[in-house]
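lol so apparently i was supposed to do this last week
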Amino acid sequence: MSSFHHELIRRNPGEPEFHQATLEVLETLAPVLAARPEIAAAKLVERICEPERQIMFRVPWQDDAGEIHINRGFRVEFNSALGPYKGGLRFHPSVNLGIVKFLGFEQIFKNALTGLNIGGGKGGSDFDPHGRSDAEVMRFCQSFMTELHRHLGEHTDVPAGDIGVGGREIGFMFGQYRRITNRWEAGILTGKGLQWGGSHARTEATGYGNVLFTAEMLKQRGEDLDGQQVTVSGSGNVAIYTIEKAQALGANVLTCSDSGGYIVDEKGIDLALLKEIKEVERGRISEYAERRGASATYVPGGSVWDVPADVALPSATQNELDGDAARTLVRAGVKAVSEGANMPATPEAVTVLREAGVAFGPGKAANAGGVATSALEMRQNSGRESWTFERAEGELAEIMRGIHATCFETAERYGAPGDYVVGANIAGFERVADAMLEQGLI
Ligand code: NDP
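anyway here it is w/ NDP bound
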């Protein structure tokens, strides 16, 4: 490990996910630093690892029984060399500064890979929306935005959703922003409702994008998704639209999960039932097996990666696929693993998969379709336009093909053919580093 990374750990104590995400990128940059000494001389790696700004704030709110709660809000504005800070908000009890920094750091390179003008940022709160009424979620979102609003702006910082933040939460936050500022500024949040500035295909974009990226990786190997057995983890926004697109391309999707356990459906996931339980009723995945009948089994706890598959698409959360799970997948003959979630595979898992020759799509490339479509939403907002679903999806597909090609070609150019981790890290880093070089000592 470099002395710089030792120093990074010392200066950012108690943030293991941030240490992991930075190390994973730094480990792959040696070829570009050797080929381009001006980047090392300008200390661009060191500068990129330091956020431009970190905001932490108190979020007081009252539950339905009148009890007062105090949560913590975060927004890490990591890098704006390429455009306004862009990245989601996560509401989950595990959220802390280190998690937000890991996500914001990843976001810099992901956003660069899209080829669009968006910088990297991330935010959220340790608020847990599970089991809370709509009124409680609204009061929390209003309190959260009461502080966050002063940091946002269509040319400054534009959040979106992430774990625990979907259309409902974005709506409550947008409403509060309007009340406070008395301005109808569509461009301050993405993932909005279709009637008030949202983009078609934004809800679907991350999951669809990951499946399109996977299809591109398989195409390189002379295969496609038709007839493949696919396992998916999670049952939130990313998982649901991953399943939808994989099924549309002819795959048989066997699994999905939540933090309680996973289901296996031998006949293939019934997406209408899954959407009803998760999107409408906000229920648990165990209910799927109860209502689906004999083809489906619920496995409480356990690892969804025990189910043999040709293609595995982790779409829940960080570090959900470890070294043992990767070895199990390899033994079962997995051909491709692509990260719908952010950093779902541990470093050991990534090593196991790469050494076994499995096509591995890193999240910063494979799940970039969500933020790319957010940038398309921003483009529609600034032009006061509303594109059709077909146009938005068509642009998404083109962007995902472009990201795949960029990663593939960059990996070849730097002597690591077929290694999408190297390709994504170097291509994303070079675009940001070049912009920073041209903008002076920033
Ligand atoms: P959602 O909140 O819609 O869904 C999250 C899913 O993951 C739920 O099924 C949840 O289960 C499960 N989950 C969350 N935490 C854990 C945990 N600790 N252990 C097991 N399961 C867990 O979030 P999204 O679908 O939006 O996000 C999923 C992942 O994709 C995240 O890593 C996110 O950063 C990433 N991502 C999302 C994008 C987007 O556009 N939404 C864009 C790019 C990446 P439960 O309900 O039981 O908690």
